[in-house]
Amino acid sequence: MTTRQYILFAIPSLIWGSTWYAIKFQLGTVDPLLSVAYRFLAAGILLILFCLVTGRKMKFTLREHLMMLLLGLCLFGMNYWFVYEVETTLTSGIVAVIFSLIIFFNIFFNAVLLKGKIKPDVIVAAVLGVGGTALLFKNELVKFQGGNGNWIIFLLCFGGLTFASLGNIISAYKQKKNVPVLQANAYGMLYGGLAMFAMVLLLGKPLRFDASLNYSVSLLYLSIFGSIVAFSTYLKLLGEIGPDRSIYVALITPAIALLISTFFEGYRWDVFAALGILLLFSGNILALRFKTKKTVT
């Protein structure tokens, strides 16, 4: 990869490594579905304003808007609703291990829907990454006790993985059709936020806002950095190196989250966590070590 592509990889990895904690402040008084709506409505409006101020093209065909709607529903709506719901029940570590499986979803959908090749090095990197993530959160996995109610949670996880992966594929497809990333994200986030707000009304969930500092600041952080900045850089990278390799961002973020926790929460490392980090970064090197192809613009 080029230096620029490594920067595109690093930015969302570092940001999403911190959003695991920010999301926790979104859970409580406000229903998770409404929190997702707030997050992406704010992100969509802010990004649209940015695009208008900077003079970017904002007129698109109906077909292109439908693709942006699908992008919004998958990547900025249903996916995050399911994640927020799951995090009210499971620990962040368990969620990280489950959602690390998205790399296999991307490999599958990239091959089936975009006719991409299944590359042996990417498969090996994926196995190393998922294995490393599992070792990082070994203690939480050992303590986890299954139950009948957890089947619903795992179905939500599967749904979240599917929607997130399809969102990745839609973004890769629209970039091949020369739809700019920023504008597509702006409309997609707005559509996703509106769709989630409509579901709040349809499901009769209470409309409320938590004016506490923790909720408000975390919402602002998630909207600007966790959504606008992170997704703009990540999806640009996805268009350049493909959804099978770029998704390794999702595997590296839990490791970054633990590194942050070491300094701010006193996380103590053990031999399994250290081995997990080694596997993760080994897979990372393998997944991203390839000859740069012509950039998709």
Shape type:
globular
Number of domains: 1
SS content category: mainly alpha
The unreliable regions are 292-297
Overall pLDDT: 88
Described by strand count, sense and barrel closure, the largest sheet is: none
Describe the protein's architecture and organization.
It is found in: Membrane. This is EamA domain-containing protein. Residues 6-137, 152-287 form the EamA domain. Keywords: Membrane, Transmembrane, Transmembrane helix. The chain crosses the membrane at residues 7-23, 35-54, 66-84, 90-109, 121-139, 151-173, 185-203, 215-235, 247-265, 271-290. Mean pLDDT is 88; it is low at 292-297. This protein has 297 residues and is mostly helical. It has one domain (3-288). 77% of the residues lie in helices and 0% in strands. It is globular and about 55 Å long.
Output the keywords.
297 residues; mainly alpha; 13 helices; 77% helix; EamA domain-containing protein; EamA_dom; EmrE-like
Summarize the structure.
The chain is an all-alpha fold. The chain is 77% helix and 0% strand.
Itemize the secondary structure elements and their pairings.
Layout (H helix, E strand, L loop, with lengths): L2 H22 L7 H22 L8 H26 L4 H8 L2 H12 L6 H17 L1 H6 L6 H27 L4 H22 L10 H29 L1 H4 L1 H17 L6 H18 L9
Helix pairs in contact: 1-10, 1-12, 2-3, 2-9, 2-10, 3-8, 3-9, 5-8, 6-12, 6-13, 9-10, 12-13
